[in-house]
C-alpha cells in the first residue's frame, strides 16, 4: 500500500456547463477537492493547501472594485500556499479577463469549450 501523499487540486465549478474533469486531474496524480463556491474554496485552501486550482473566470459587472470572484480566490492563497492557477473563461469576456491578468498571475488560461487535450498539456507542464 502506498503512503505517498498526493498533491491536492482544488476544482471550483461555480457555473459549470462543461464536463467533470476529475478523472483527468486524478490521472495526473492529484487528490481532487471540489466545491461550487469561492467562499467555500477559501476555507478549503487553508485546509488542503492545494498545489493547483482550476476555476472559472465569471465576469461580474456589478462588482465595483474587481471583475470576478477570482481576485478574492487568488488573494486568499497568498501566504498560505504556492498554487498554480488554471482558469477557464468565455471568449466574450476576454477584454475583462485581460484586465484581470494585468494584476494576477495564472499558470494557464483555457477558453470554453475546454479542449481536453490542451487541459492535459497544461497539467503535464505544471505537474512536473
Brief overview:
By secondary structure, the protein is of the alpha/beta class. It is built from 5 helices and 5 strands. The chain has helices at residues 22-27, 38-48, 70-75, 94-103, 116-127, and strands at 8-12, 31-35, 52-57, 84-89, 108-111.
What does the model show?
The chain has 128 residues and is of the alpha/beta class. The chain has one domain: Response regulator (Rossmann fold). The protein is built from five helices and five strands, in the order E-H-E-H-E-H-E-H-E-H. The mean pLDDT is 89.
What is the fold's blueprint, element by element?
Layout: E1 8-12, H1 22-27, E2 31-35, H2 38-48, E3 52-57, H3 70-75, E4 84-89, H4 94-103, E5 108-111, H5 116-127
Parallel strand pairs: 1-2, 1-3, 3-4, 4-5
Please give a handful of descriptors for the protein shown.
alpha/beta, Rossmann fold, 5 strands, 5-stranded parallel β-sheet
* Widest sheet: strand ordering: 2-1-3-4-5
CATH classification class = Alpha Beta
User: Please, how many helices?
Assistant: 5
What is the H level of CATH, i.e. the homologous superfamily? Response regulator
Proportion of β residues?
15-25%
Under CATH, the topology is which? Rossmann fold
Amino acid at each position: 500500500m502506498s503512503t505517498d501523499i498526493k498533491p491536492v487540486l482544488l476544482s471550483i465549478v461555480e457555473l459549470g456547463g462543461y464536463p467533470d474533469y476529475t478523472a483527468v486531474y486524478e490521472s495526473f496524480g492529484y487528490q481532487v477537492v471540489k466545491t461550487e463556491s469561492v467562499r467555500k474554496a477559501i476555507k478549503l485552501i487553508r485546509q488542503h493547501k492545494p498545489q493547483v486550482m482550476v476555476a472559472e473566470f465569471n465576469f461580474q459587472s456589478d462588482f465595483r472594485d474587481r471583475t470576478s470572484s477570482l481576485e478574492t480566490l487568488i488573494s486568499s492563497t497568498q501566504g498560505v500556499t504556492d498554487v498554480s492557477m488554471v482558469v477557464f473563461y468565455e471568449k466574450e469576456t476576454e477584454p475583462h479577463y485581460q484586465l484581470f491578468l494585468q494584476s494576477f498571475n495564472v499558470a494557464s488560461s483555457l477558453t470554453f469549450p475546454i479542449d481536453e487535450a490542451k487541459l492535459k498539456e497544461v497539467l503535464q507542464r505544471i505537474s512536473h
